[in-house]
Amino acid sequence: MKEILREIGMIARALDSISNIEFKEFDLTKGQYLYLVRICEYPGIIQEKLAEMIKVDRSTAARAIKKLEISGFIEKKEDQHNKKIKKLFATEKGKYIYPFIKKEHDYSNSVALEGFSEKEAEAIFNFLQRIRKNIEKDWEFVKKGNRRNY
């Protein structure tokens, strides 16, 4: 069987490394841009939903969110109906940086798909979505404390 996940991992690590280098000038540390992008795209998102979107555990998300908050990129606001719920919003500083992150993402996407037709790009996207959905089942299973049978 082809080592598809190894290829996906190498692509993800290379893009993450590039982003970390390029976003260093904005004082965004490792991986924080992922959180900031989702918060900009989904204003008022709650921490648990954000962790689920990025596919990290709650404690990892909590640390990244705290760092973004301390750095002034995001802020937490209480829900009007339930004071226990804290919603996440980008600050002006976070909103200012978002277009740069988006531009880098769009550029990386175009580089990745260079030489592929629109039809091929659509097929890749659909295949990757199917792979993600397959993996999400195991992610949910293991996240709940279960062990997979190999």
Automatic annotation (TrEMBL):
SUPFAM superfamilies: Winged helix' DNA-binding domain
PROSITE patterns reported for this sequence: HTH_MARR_1 (PS01117), HTH_MARR_2 (PS50995)
Key words of the record: DNA-binding, Transcription, Transcription regulation
Domain spans labelled HTH marR-type: 1-133
Pfam family for this entry, one: MarR
Family annotation (InterPro entries): HTH_MarR-typ, Tscrpt_reg_MarR-type_CS, WH-like_DNA-bd_sf, WH_DNA-bd_sf
MF GO annotations: DNA binding; DNA-binding transcription factor activity
Protein name: MarR family transcriptional regulator
Organism: Paenibacillus woosongensis
